[in-house]
Every structure is written in C-alpha cells, then in structure tokens.
Amino acid sequence: MRRTGTTRRGALTVTGAVALGAALAGCGDGDSGEGRKGSAPAGARDAAAKAEKALRMTAARTSGTLLAQYEQVVTAHPATAAGLAPLRDAVRAHTEALSPGAGRTVRPSAGETAGMTAMRGAALSGRPAPSGSPTVPGSPAADAKTAVKELAAAERRTADAHTATLLTAPPELARLLASIAAAGAAHAYLLTELAKETSS
C-alpha cells in the first residue's frame, strides 16, 4: 500500500469518531422512549418490545457481517490495517449499539453473547458461523485493492439494509439506523478513495 496523506488519514479518523458518536447518541434516547411507552397497555408494550428486539437482532447481524468482512480483509492484507482501523472500529460500535439491550441496563443473553463471540472467531479462522449468527463472508480478494473495493460495496449494501429496516422501526431505533446508514455511505466513499491509493 502506498503511503496515504495526512488529510486522508484524518478524514478516516474523524469519520470513525463521528460514526461512533452517532451510535452512542442514538442509544442515549432510550429513556425518553420508555417514558412514552408507559401509557400503552402491557400487551401492546410487550409486542412492541419483541418487534424492536427482532429488528435490532437483524440489524446487528447485518453490521456483524460487515465487521467480519473488515476483520478478514485486515487479516489477509495487513498493510490495510492502518487505513481500515477507524472504519472497522466504527462498525464494531454500530454492531454493539444495535444489539438488543444496548444503551440499557439489560445485558445480552448468554446465547446472544456466545453468537457474537462465535462470529468473531469464525471470521478469523474461516470456519462457518453457527446458525443465527452474523453471516461470515467468503474469503477476501487476493489483492488488497480489490478487497478494499469489496468493503466499499459491502458498506453500501449494509447502509441500504439499515435504511430499509428503519422504515418499520420505532422512533429511537429508526434514528439510530439512520445515523448508521449515513455513516455507512460516508465509509463507502472513503473506502472507494482509499482503494485508489492501495497497491494491488
């Protein structure tokens, strides 16, 4: 990989920080949402909570798949690590923010925690992930330039998926998904530019 300029590296770092801030800001609205739900019948609250948990699990799995792809590219092409680290860290924050119970005192269930751990291990080892875990993508391209381009395409697909999900999400989750989708679009642009400066 050719040496990237300080402007490019700074843009990557700032984008990662902004994306992380958006994720945390989205989660921080949880208390106001709980207050509005207080007046709804218990049955309706339970149904809404189950529906939101299902949406969160789907969105977290989508971001988890993207995170696995980042991990694979960095492992296969170590020279890309410095450029990809801020974006990968942002995607990790997105995955954690989207997980059921994020931003609240409720902890993920043992099954959910085990699933995420298994996904990360599978991403690094190449083993298939267990059922219900984020899908582990296939092996990255043999050359770094193409691998980074593939990450850009994966960021676009992930942003599109989150945009589609937010249409049926409750307000708090919809705001979080919108922030993450916007960050993903920015990531895709930066990755496309980074690919131009990456040696094959």
**Mean model confidence by pLDDT:** 76
Number of strands: 0
| Quaternary structure state of the chains depicted | single chain
Q: Shape from CA axes? A: elongated
Low-confidence stretches: 1-6, 22-35, 104-131
Largest sheet: none
Give the terminus-to-terminus CA distance: 8 Å
The share of residues in helices is: over 70%
Structural class: mainly alpha
Proportion in β-strands:
under 5%
- What pattern of helices and strands is seen along the backbone? HHHHHHH
How many alpha or pi helices?
7
**CA-atom Rg in angstroms:** 17 Å
Question: What does this 3D model show about the protein?
Answer:
This protein has 200 residues and is an all-alpha fold. It has 7 helices and no strands. It has helices at residues 6-27, 30-37, 42-76, 81-98, 110-125, 144-166, 171-196. Helix 3 packs antiparallel against helix 6. The longest helix has 35 residues, at 42-76. The protein is elongated. The N and C termini lie close together (8 Å).
